[in-house]
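Translate structure to sequence.
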């Protein structure tokens, strides 16, 4: 990531190098001692909310709709949260995710069994490639390909011509068999983005993430009309309405999901099914630690036949620690479901305590 000029590995206009990441963990505990964990990745240039703010919203407002409820009652819990607290989808999503693991732990089954069952137990992944020179990017792509990856997401946004040179170098090094999606991190205006996409569309681009500013809804609609490359949102997607309205207006051709952003697993499944019914694929993507990786992996396993794109779970290569006692294995470019109850892994409480930036916030009935 540090190879890029701004130390971020991407074209986003944030001013501080991305040397560490911020997360909020949620633990739900029942009267029999079963635990359900959720994890949410936060970054102020994208999320606009910090861990402390989200924890405060849960403690002071959202917890009352979860405490004392059954963890299987995610529909009722979600409805009550929506009626009484506007927006705050990431906080609601964190609670929703923890409910699913608690429910699965109570019956001794994997979370994906509560989502309709796993279609696959090995999920092909998409590798995350930071912004850099053509040779630098091509080297990383070749490394992923040699490890069995069949899809890549490449950060772009230097200029239309420089972007073209990067993708040309990757195609020359890796050939035509590997799928490529690109990520512009909001760097272009609509006219410039149209030129940038026109220069690379003949390289069979799988999808393009957030080429315009997150609020430029009309620009996205116009841009999607001008390019055959399916566009999708990231910085501009935090609610179900963001994705549904943009899809119906013709501003995107794929749906990108971080599990906590649309309100957790419950809404993620709704959106995947909705997109599939509209003939549109879904891209699951995030930079998670161990619990977040598990969340995305169980969603992917349960809806794999409806995705159409390989998920990107880049935390496996980005972070030195996952704050769990073990990690999901990645073999030949695919993540392997471990089996077992809940997520199939356990939070490392000692490691978690070592990384706390504030004392845990507790709520009880």
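Result:
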């Amino acid at each position: 990531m540090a190879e890029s000029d701004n130390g971020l590995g991407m074209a986003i206009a944030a001013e501080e190098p991305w040397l560490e990441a911020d997360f909020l963990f949620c633990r739900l505990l029942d009267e029999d001692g079963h635990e359900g964990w959720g994890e949410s990745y936060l970054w102020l240039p994208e999320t606009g909310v910090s861990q402390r703010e989200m924890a405060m919203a849960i403690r002071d407002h959202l917890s009352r709709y979860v405490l004392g409820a059954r963890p299987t009652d995610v529909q009722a819990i979600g409805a009550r949260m929506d009626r009484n607290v506007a927006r705050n989808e990431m906080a609601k999503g964190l609670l929703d995710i923890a409910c699913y693991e608690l429910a699965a732990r109570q019956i001794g089954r994997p979370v994906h069994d509560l989502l309709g069952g796993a279609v696959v137990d090995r999920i092909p992944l998409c590798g995350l490639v930071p912004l850099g020179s053509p040779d630098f990017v091509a080297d990383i792509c070749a490394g992923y390909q040699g490890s069995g990856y069949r899809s890549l997401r490449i950060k772009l946004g230097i200029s239309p011509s420089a972007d073209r040179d990067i993708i040309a170098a990757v195609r020359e090094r890796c050939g035509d068999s590997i799928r490529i999606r690109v990520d512009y991190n909001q760097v272009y205006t609509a006219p410039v983005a149209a030129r940038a996409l026109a220069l690379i569309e003949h390289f069979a681009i799988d999808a393009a993430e957030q080429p315009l500013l997150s609020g430029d809804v009309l620009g996205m609609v116009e841009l999607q009309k001008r390019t055959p490359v399916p566009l999708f949102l990231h910085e501009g997607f935090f609610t179900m309405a963001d994705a549904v309205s943009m899809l119906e207006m013709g501003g995107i051709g794929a749906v990108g999901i971080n599990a906590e952003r649309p309100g957790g697993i419950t809404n993620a499944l709704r959106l995947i099914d909705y997109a599939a019914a509209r003939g549109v694929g879904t891209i699951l993507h995030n930079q998670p630690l161990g619990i977040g990786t598990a969340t995305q992996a169980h969603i992917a396993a349960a809806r794999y036949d409806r995705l159409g794109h390989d998920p990107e779970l880049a935390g496996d290569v980005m972070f030195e620690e996952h704050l769990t006692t073990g990690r999901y294995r990645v073999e030949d470019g695919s993540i392997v479901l471990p089996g077992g109850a809940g997520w199939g892994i356990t939070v490392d409480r000692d490691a978690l305590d070592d990384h706390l930036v504030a004392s845990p916030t507790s709520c009880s009935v």
